[in-house]
Amino acid sequence: MKIMTLEELAAHDGQNGHRALIAFQGKVYDVTDSFLWQNGNHQVLHQAGRDLTNEMKDAPHGEDLLTKFPVVAQLARAK
Predict the structure, then answer these.
(1) In angstroms, what CA-CA distances link 8 with 11, 16, 19, 69?
(2) What CA–CA distance (Å, rounded) separates 35 from 42?
(3) Could you tell me whether strands 46-47 and 41-42 are parallel, antiparallel, or unpaired per DSSP bridges?
(4) N or C: which end of the chain has fewer CB within 10 A?
């Protein structure tokens, strides 16, 4: 599986024709086709192209929701 750095993830912010990718607990999910992620924004609270692991703690839904989206990469560990 592809390994993606945070810098590479940031380029996939869902804007200007870029795919919308988010990371959670080391996995990178493609949320581009979700109507809830228009232009890389989710409910005006979250932006694609970021690791949302800490932000998910406050989400009104569980992490199981992410299983609906394809995993496209593993997030590289910070050095």
Answers:
(1) 5, 16, 12, 19
(2) 9
(3) antiparallel
(4) C
Provide the pLDDT for residue 60: 73
Indicate whether this model's pTM tops 0.70: yes
Select from 14, 69, 63, 59 the least CA-distant residue to 39.
14
Compute the distance between CA of residue 52 and CA of residue 36 in angstroms, rounded to an integer: 15
Please check whether residue 29 is in contact with residue 36, taking contact to mean a CB–CB distance below 8 angstroms.
no
Q: Which amino acid would we find at residue 66?
A: L
The secondary structure element, H or E, covering residue 22 is: strand 21-24
**68 within 8 A of 41, measured Cβ to Cβ:** no
